[in-house]
């Protein structure tokens, strides 16, 4: 079997996918029109560039500007439900069997919704997806770096009642350069007390110290990106020794100029070094990608072979925050796929 065909068919996970960065452009435009939210372009073709980065931008800040319209249109239950369901439908087309969707509920209160209503709406679409589309998912709620810590405390206190019922983890997202991890220790202490997992965006924009700070001060069990881990040998050793997974999103890193090109991304070096690397999309719309494309880029630009693909796919299952029961299902499906397509003398070229 051709490696690219296998990439399309292999059962995959996506552990780092922002809901507001992964909304279909036609949906954003449709809701913007209904809600009289101004856009620069009103035909879909020209509109794409308002919500996508095509190539590179100058910084993470410029990248984050692409979230303005998506957040603006996600202020009513019906729209939040719709974009969640559409994301699940799109994920399924790429053979994603389990996805951890993340977003910042605090960004969706402008229309009068409460934090509970925002979170419940996403969980309700995820439950529909599990029952009717047969795609498993969990929710990671993001605290925002630039917001006062009190808001993140309110968020985690609101979310604790959904622990084990859809919400699996707390994340810290946003402008890493100006707001270091230590500002947000309290909500992450609470998440740990409430048995809610922790993952933190860190080392995405050149500040390698944020990786160890997130692990030590915020109890991070996984690191979002961790692209700059190579800048500090002790961090690399610690990540490898303690099997702290990296949620890597290579197109996003090219977009934000965290790396110069796909070829220069450190992902293969990390994998060969023994780090627990996982492959994810970050934002399918903003980064104009899919999980299948991310794997294709790894083969094309990073010389990933079959063993590498298998390793990161297995890591995606093993290091997910899925329940033991869901992990068993994912492993069974993955093993049966491998047996069917590669077993008993099957070759992949
Ligand atoms: Zn992210």
From TrEMBL:
GO terms for cellular component: cytosol. GO terms for biological process: adenosine catabolic process; hypoxanthine salvage; inosine biosynthetic process; nucleotide metabolic process; purine ribonucleoside monophosphate biosynthetic process. SUPFAM superfamilies: Metallo-dependent hydrolases. Transmembrane segments: none annotated. Binds 1 zinc ion per subunit. The record marks 225 as: Important for catalytic activity. Its cofactor is Zn(2+). Its EC number is 3.5.4.4. GO terms for molecular function: 2'-deoxyadenosine deaminase activity; adenosine deaminase activity; zinc ion binding. Keywords: Hydrolase, Metal-binding, Nucleotide metabolism, Zinc. Catalyzes the hydrolytic deamination of adenosine and 2-deoxyadenosine. This is Adenosine deaminase. It comes from Clostridium ragsdalei P11. The lineage of its organism: Bacteria, Bacillati, Bacillota, Clostridia, Eubacteriales. The gene is add.
